[in-house]
Amino acid sequence: CPAEYDLRYVHRLDRAGEDGEARRVGTAWHEAFRAMHSEEEHGQGKLNTLSAISRINECAPSMLWALKLTRLFVAHRWWWRKEDEELEVIRTEHQFDVEFEGYKFTGQIDGIVRAPDGRIGVIERKTAGEDIGVGAAYWDRMRMNVQVGLYALAVEPRPSFIMYDVVRKP
């Protein structure tokens, strides 16, 4: 719905009663990755896990969430250690404006990466409070998600893959 998109993503308005804690948890998660890849803090291509953990502590909605997210982040980095060596991060939290079929869309892409074979791709990071296992209903919704389809229009050269990086919140 273009009107809902405009209110939610352009004007940053939430539906009444929407869970603010869930949003703050997701924001802390995204901020960790932004800090980890920040060029201001260190040289390009180097990962800064300590900056990421510090950012989690600043953004988490509570001390308990800061502890949970820190442990989750450390486990996540261990799991993705091979991809860290293979995928070159080109940009994180990439802001875009794109027009399609007479509508203007504004958004933010979590990550743009280059694979070892030179292909450009997009990483979409999510935190979920529901089942994300193989065959879960979550993935049916992601397949129909318009948001990542817009990314293909917003990135030049066009991405050849979109990789979901989804963690289940403890």
What report would you give on this structure?
The chain has helices at residues 2-10, 20-36, 49-59, 63-79, 81-86, 137-143, 146-154, and strands at residues 88-100, 103-114, 120-128, 161-168. The chain is an alpha+beta fold and 170 residues long. Strands 1-2-3-4 form a four-stranded mixed beta sheet. Strand 1 (88-100) and strand 2 (103-114) form a beta hairpin. The model is unreliable at 40-45 (pLDDT under 50).
Strand content: 15-25%
> Gyration radius, to the nearest Å?
16 Å
Helix fraction, binned, reads 40-55%
Q: What is the rounded distance between the termini?
A: 32 Å
Largest sheet: 4 strands, mixed
Mean pLDDT: 86
User: Strand pairing plus helix content: what structural class?
Assistant: alpha+beta
Backbone shape: globular
Number of helices: 7
Strands of the widest sheet, in order across it, are 1-2-3-4
Instruction: Give the beta-strand count.
Output: 4
Could you state the order of secondary-structure elements as H and E?
Answer: HHHHHEEEHHE
* Low-pLDDT regions: 40-45
Spell out the key features of this protein:
170 residues; alpha+beta; 4-stranded mixed β-sheet
Question: Which SSEs are present, and which pair or pack?
Answer:
Blueprint (H helix, E strand, L loop, with lengths): L1 H9 L9 H17 L12 H11 L3 H17 L1 H6 L1 E13 L2 E12 L5 E9 L8 H7 L2 H9 L6 E8 L2
Parallel strand pairs: 3-4
Antiparallel strand pairs: 1-2, 2-3
Helix pairs in contact: 2-3, 3-4
Sum this structure up briefly.
By secondary structure, this protein is an alpha+beta fold. It is 45% helix and 25% strand. β1 (88-100) and β2 form a beta hairpin.
